[in-house]
Amino acid sequence: MTSQRDGLDRFYSVIPAGGIGSRLWPLSRADAPKFLHDLTGSGSTLLRATWDRLAPLSGEQRIMVVTGRAHRAAVEGQLPSLADPNVVLESEPKESSAAIGLAAAILERREPGVIVGSFAADHVINDQNAFRRAVVAAVAAADAGYIATIGITPTEPAIGFGYIRCGEQLDIDGAPTAVRADSFVEKPDLETARHYLDDGNYLWNGGMFISRADVLLAQLGESEPALLAGLSELADAWDTPRRGAVVDRVWPTLKKIAIDYSVAEPAAKAGRLAVIPGDFDWDDVGDFAAIAKLHSAGGPSNLAILGENARVLADSSSGIVVSQTGRLISLIGVSDIVVVDTPDALLVTTSANAQRVKAVVDALKLSGSNDVL
Amino acid sequence: MTSQRDGLDRFYSVIPAGGIGSRLWPLSRADAPKFLHDLTGSGSTLLRATWDRLAPLSGEQRIMVVTGRAHRAAVEGQLPSLADPNVVLESEPKESSAAIGLAAAILERREPGVIVGSFAADHVINDQNAFRRAVVAAVAAADAGYIATIGITPTEPAIGFGYIRCGEQLDIDGAPTAVRADSFVEKPDLETARHYLDDGNYLWNGGMFISRADVLLAQLGESEPALLAGLSELADAWDTPRRGAVVDRVWPTLKKIAIDYSVAEPAAKAGRLAVIPGDFDWDDVGDFAAIAKLHSAGGPSNLAILGENARVLADSSSGIVVSQTGRLISLIGVSDIVVVDTPDALLVTTSANAQRVKAVVDALKLSGSNDVL
């Protein structure tokens, strides 16, 4: 077994930057997905904040970003230190198994024994020190041969997240809090979520996976051999002149499947998944209610306002206003309201209905209203 | 006493077109007041609909419009048959006593014995026949020397209107339903409004006043002699080359007072005010809740949509959307909502808060945000 430092030396960060974030329409769009927005009011986009969180761990030269071709310019504009060989462009979205698996396969060929950690481009974490401690422990677990994940200690019976049921304590050098993952469970209803919270043995699935690249790929190959074969072919050609031709031929054939299903759940069933409890704030800011909550926690006002040129006049109202226009927005006596004002589309809903925004996007797709998607 | 026909022959309609309609901000503005909007979806503006209601009674050549200088072009554009001498322009708003009093004074000089009827430019009445019957009766009462008003039979305990308490039956040729007005009462609270409705002796004050011009002016002179003197000076000069100079000197000095206070209430106290019960629909569409109600009564949908190019996607929502932009407006799960989308200002409130819109306009004035007023 190598030392903790050795593991970190071989650590590479991977940021899959793919999802549009349909529940954040009309702010998030096909051409301006969630990760390109500053949803916290920090002045940084979610992507940039993710980069800044990872750079101290792996170094800027050891961060790979997997994103769509259409977002290349925006991504490189926000991450000027992103090394050219570390930009992996998808010709079409194929979900997280393909994105993370390809990154792992490319990096394993460049640097056998590499440890990869994948971190979504559009999550929010404020406690940087606690995050780093958890990643360092996860790298130690990965170095010990586990597929590691960081499970977030729940602070409320959230129904918008998946959960991990924790099992026995593991004995891993450098990861004293690591436990074995018993199973992954889907987003629960409120009653079940309350039971999970009371039980104390459940953590939120933060979607962060850290493991040796070869271990990750082997696990993927067990459940999805065809996908692994495709990714291997791509990785073999990646750093050669054949890349373009192979991408054109192979990428469209890849199966769309989330890495939770192709890797994490099978690994948990096989007892190979280690969970590092992460005792820090975390949110996937999945809808406008989540953004409103992020902001209301930070200040005394109960009306969150996002937007550089926001001009809001509110009289006894609460909720969130997102302003992308210079228009005056006046709210009178509306509670838990969500108002998203963009140049070509306006959304008015409530926090309680925030999850239903995706249904509107689906309806717009069906009606052919692609101009506002 | 002259015959009913004789009275109508001497009838002249006056339309004071002055109020901005602050409770309908940001739809109604200083440069686009309420009366210039089509709030009913009929295809006619409120001003044009008022004209069309009065033309069969007085004839198009006998309708005078009193409006602000800034609105001359819009008013003349909507009323192409409006005779040039019948356009009375205010250099600044001075409320209804000055507007209606000046019209009466000008017309009395042009045509002694004229009967004037003043009708707000921004009210909604659908039952044209019942309206005409009431006006014909009011003209008969005016011809008999009364100041007449049309009181609307209440259909609900409205708190947004003033009420008229009715007294004894009058015996007027051509106005068999006329009663004496006992008193005018201000907008009541809900409990009082319910009492009025149950009592059966109260009518809504529709703000329509019909009387001989000389009678109206004499009544005005009793309560506001200085105002009458100013109006007389203006009227004496009106159809002469001195008009401009006299307007510049006198108009700014006129007292601002509603005709309800200067004429109607004193006339009621003196027993000179006749009320014709008007058994027709009537609304002053004072706020967005009123507009929503107008529309919901007309169709099965509980979401009223105003705006020629409105593009609304609504999922289990009710209330009203006013769209002045081509933007897509999406509503999800909001009840009794009011959304008014204009190029430079957006309002989001609820029907229950519709009356509070005026407070926002006041706040905007105080903060110097004149660009959106």
TrEMBL record, chains A, B:
Coiled-coil stretches noted in the UniProt entry, renumbered to this chain: none
GO molecular function: mannose-1-phosphate guanylyltransferase (GTP) activity
Any matching Pfam family: ManC_GMP_beta-helix
Ranges for domain Nucleotidyl transferase: 14-295
InterPro entries referenced in this protein's UniProt entry, alphabetically: GMPP_N, ManC/GMP-like_b-helix, Mannose-6P_isomerase_type2, NTP_transferase_dom, Nucleotide-diphossugar_trans
Keyword tags: Nucleotidyltransferase, Transferase
Residues of the MannoseP isomerase/GMP-like beta-helix domain: 312-364
Biological processes, Gene Ontology terms: GDP-mannose biosynthetic process
Protein name per its UniProtKB record: Mannose-1-phosphate guanylyltransferase
Taxonomic lineage from the root: Bacteria, Bacillati, Actinomycetota, Actinomycetes, Micrococcales
